[in-house]
Structures are given as structure tokens and as C-alpha cells.
Amino acid sequence: MKVGARTIRSRKGMAAVLLCGITVAACGSSKSASPTTAAATTAAATTAAATTAAATTAGATTAAATTAAATTAAATTAPAKTNATITVAIVDNPTMKDIEKLTPDNFTTQTGIKVNYVNLDEQTLREQVTKSVGSGAAQYDVVMIGPYEAPQFGKNGWLQDLTPFTTKDTAYDVNDLIDSVKGALSNDGKLFAVPFYGESSFVMYRKDIMDAAGIKVPEAPTWDDIAGIARKVNKPDMAGICLRGKPGWGDLGASLTTVVNTFGGTWWDAKPDGSIGKAEVNSGGFKDATNFYAQLVKDAGEKDAANASFNECLKLMQDSKAAMWYDATVAAGILESADSPIKGKLGYALAPTKATPASGWLWSWALALPAGAKNPDAAWKYMSWATSKDYIKLAGTALPGGWAAIPPGSRKSTYAIPEYKAAAASFADITLKAMTAAPIASPGTTKRPGLPGVQYVGVPEFQDVGTRCTQEISSALAGNQSVDAALGKCQDIASKASS
Description:
The chain has helices at residues 11-27, 35-56, 60-77, 94-102, 104-111, 122-135, 149-155, 163-168, 179-184, 207-212, 223-233, 252-262, 284-300, 310-318, 331-335, 376-386, 389-398, 418-423, 428-437, 461-477, 483-495; strands at residues 85-91, 114-120, 142-145, 186-187, 190-191, 194-199, 201-206, 268-270, 276-279, 324-328, 346-350, 363-368.
């Protein structure tokens, strides 16, 4: 990937930009936690989770399946046992909670390596990880990041190139990783993170609700289509649609930016050399998209939208409190899991568009190795296991949600597993279609600065600007100020980052 002259800074310069942004964002985040507190809390939670997992797997059927999968993995990788302990920072969502439960009786039993998980909400995870790797601290042995961070952090020397590890670990089969995801986690031919799961974004909707209303949802809808449907099915006890409204460039900022792109808007225009040009937050497509988004939330969205992100919308769907949801494709596996109360009641449509042929994002929650990691060999053993074919098979047999709930979108071989093909029949194909169609190189109608990206702008400045601006827009969604007032403040924030 080609990089603009100002996109990737020196280690010192980029650290200053990102760490400054963290300071501002942390001041506005009630959920930010110190690493020490988070680690201590999570260590206790991990112990409890391990006890629960051990009790749960005591059943004969589950124990047999788990033992068989663990035996297969051990036979394939044959890792030497060690007494190391590693600390892994992960995002707090259901898919990651699954691996936390499976780790003690599988990975630790096989290798002797204990894993201390630090679970953090999306915004706090990004703040803590950026601060840790940017300063060269050895706080975490493994960190969870995505396509926004991997190329920039890797280019800046904050992460280790994983290519030597994947080359030496012949059982890993790096060529089985989905090409678009692997490419998004790489820079200049170097792989800086390995995907735990990959995703795009699409619309999830209740087929039974639509059938009762006589509505057919198009497979490739426009935003006007979705808004019209949401308003028709909206009821006092069931929102017509759930949309992210929680502050954060990866929360509200992720979904809103895809709408901005397809409405013809952009955060900044790009100079010929790829650096940041003029801020365009309070005009044109950006303003139109934000007004559209805010009005749709007001007319047919969930209550308290300003505090809603992935986990909140997921629960509303599971509790039949929302008829539609625009968000990450990974959610489909949770909604269709064997233990989901709405399994089999859902339909799926591609991310809505307006002025572009496609609008879905491309993301992966992936595992990376900080440059200052104290035990890289033990860390890689964990990363290799967590993102392997064997872990996917283990998850399919051991998780209460069954095969539908495994980590999707990371490996090509996943989509050839008969059990997964059957369990994910309603969403697997459209997930891959969405990931393939994600317009990462050209997300809007004009050129963007920096590295490729859909729901983010691939420049260091975006982390701070996106977080601060979404705080203002979220405030508008809550009714505390007008959209125009919020965008006026955002324009000032974004303009300070212009070249």
C-alpha cells in the first residue's frame, strides 16, 4: 500500500499525536480503566470463568467433543510445555468471551502457558493499547487491534512483523487467511496482526416482523429503503432499527462514517501527496448524512441511542426490542447460534447505499505482538492457537452456540466445513459477499487521505478527531444540542488536523 507523505510519522511524532488524543478521549470516558485495575479485575474474572468453564464441560458429550478437538490440536502443533504467563488485551464482546472460557482447559493444558485476559470496551481498548505500544511499554504480551492500527503501528515500529513467525510455524497455514483481511492487516509486504475474526457490515432484520407488515427487504437496499421500512415497523415496544450512538471513532464513528461515505461526504479531502487537506465535516455529504442518521434515530431508533453500541443493539435484537439492526456481520453468528431466542427468524441485506455501489466496512479484530513484548515465543504460540483452524473446530464443538457461533471471516477453510455451512446457511454467503464488496480502497465519491479504510480514515490524527467529534454528535442524538451545533464544533476539531 502506498502511503502519503504525512500519513505515517516517525515513532516520536506519531506517539505525540496519538497519545495526545488518548488524553482527551480518556477525559470524556467514564469506562476508562487503568491497566493495573483492569488487569487485576480481569484476572479474577478469568479465574471465575475458568471454574465455570470446567463445570460446564463436565457433561459427557461436551467433554468428549472438547477432548477430541484438543487432542487433534495437540497432535497437529505438538507445542513444548512451558510455565510462562502472558497478558492479552482483548475487546469485550461475546466472541472473545468464548475464547476466554476455552483457553484454560485447552491452550493452557496443551502448552502450560497461562493467559491473563484484560477485557476492555472498544474505546478503552484502543486508548490503552495505543498508549502502551506507542510508548514502548511491555504492559501486554498480545494486543487486539484492527486494520486501522495494524499498518500504521507496524510501519512505525511499534509491532513485530509476524511473517517470520508464520513462516517458521508451518502448521499455521498463513495462505488460508482470507486475502482481503490479511491485506488489511499488512503493510509493505509485512503482516502485523493475525485475524481472530473478520467482518463487514450489513442489515439484520426480523423476517417475521417484515412478513406480518407485508414488507420485502431488498438484498441490496438504499438508505432510503431502510429508513422507510424502519419507520413503518417502529412500535413503542420495538424500535424500527438499532444504530450505534455511543461516542468513539470505532463505535458511532464506524457506522456513521459508512453513511457519510455513501452520501458523498468525507472527514477531509486529500492533497495530491495523500496528506490531510481541508476538513469537510459541517457541509455537503457529511452534513446530509449526519442529519439523516440523527432523524432516523429520532423517528425509529432505539431508546437511549447515545449510549448504544454493538453489545447494546445485540441485546435489543435478542430480546425482540428491535426489528432491524445495521452493524457488523459477526453479529449474525450470535443471533443464529443454537441458544439464541431468535434463531431462524432473521434475514440479511447488504449495507445500504446512496451514491456509491457499496458501503459496508471491512474490519478484523486481530492479534498483534508489541515490539516490546517480553515473551514473544509464548505470545506467538497463543496467537497461533487462537487464530488457527484447530481453534475454529474446537469452538464449533465446545461452544453452547454451536457452529454458528464460531469466529467467522478469518480463514477460507472455515467456509468449507460442512457443519458450519449448515449452521450458517442463512448468513455465510452474504457475509463473504459483503467482505468482498467492501470498498476499502475507494469508500466514497472523493479521494481520502492516508491509508485505505472504509469506516475510518487511515491517518494517525483520526483517532483523536473521530473520538472527540463523535462525542459531539452523540450529544446531538441525545437531544442535548442540534446537529448543526455539533458539526460546527467538529469542523473546528477536524480543521486543527489539516495540513
